Amino acid sequence: MLELGTDAPDFALPEPATGHIVARKDFAGKPLLVAFICNHCPYVIHIREAFAHLAQEYQQRGVAVVAINANDAASYPDDNPENMAAMVQAHGYAFPYLYDEPQTAAKAYKAACTPDLFLFDEQHKLFYRGQFDDSRPGNAAPVTGHDLRVALDLLLAHKYPPADQKASLGCNIKWKAGNEPDYYGA
């Protein structure tokens, strides 16, 4: 996992829904939430609607939100750029949903699964990395975004990061054969 205080790694990735290239520098001076998600993962599907609402709420409070899909679309066609663009429309994503075809951003962030969440302050120093909440497909816990919401509220109140940061849990990022990072499976 990236250490708290780490600078947000750079990225410049295409947004299939618009055809634009979106870069980290586009969010300079704003808190930044980077979410590694995809289309097909049951863990992402489980939180998808709540995440979209939470993202919109905090965007209105000045937080920039960007989602990145790094899955190997050749092996997992549900995650291809065309289906990403359809996902934006179907679920009202009000944030850029970017395609990391070379998987370089995922590696730079040390992303391991979907969803994997990274929250950075205004200087783009890592403030929180972890789960959305305790809800999982098949458990009875409600999808609230509690863990991420606590981190966002602390950040916006200029307080210290949450002491309890639980690692994300979900489907492994679908690495291209031979492209698995050195931290994969460690």
Overall description:
This protein is of the alpha/beta class. The protein has one domain (12-172): Glutaredoxin, CATH 3.40.30. The protein has four helices and nine strands, in the order E-E-E-H-E-H-E-H-E-E-E-H-E. It has helices at residues 42-59, 81-91, 104-109, 146-156; strands at residues 12-14, 21-23, 32-36, 64-69, 97-99, 113-114, 116-120, 126-130, 171-172. A five-stranded mixed beta sheet has the order 5-4-3-7-8. It has a two-stranded antiparallel ribbon with strand order 1-2. The longest helix has 18 residues, at 42-59. It starts with 11 loop residues before the first strand and ends in a 14-residue tail after the last strand.
In short:
This protein has helices at residues 42-59, 81-91, 104-109, 146-156; strands at 12-14, 21-23, 32-36, 64-69, 97-99, 113-114, 116-120, 126-130, 171-172. With 186 residues, it is of the alpha/beta class. Residues 2-157 form the Thioredoxin domain.
| Category from helices, strands and their pairing | alpha/beta
Order of helices and strands: EEEHEHEHEEEHE
Number of helices: 4
Number of strands: 9
The main sheet orders its strands as: 5-4-3-7-8
Question: What is Rg?
Answer: 15 Å
Corresponding CATH superfamily = Glutaredoxin
Q: What is the CATH class?
A: Alpha Beta
Average pLDDT across residues? 96
| CATH topology category name | Glutaredoxin
Percent strand equals 15-25%
Major beta-sheet overview: 5 strands, mixed
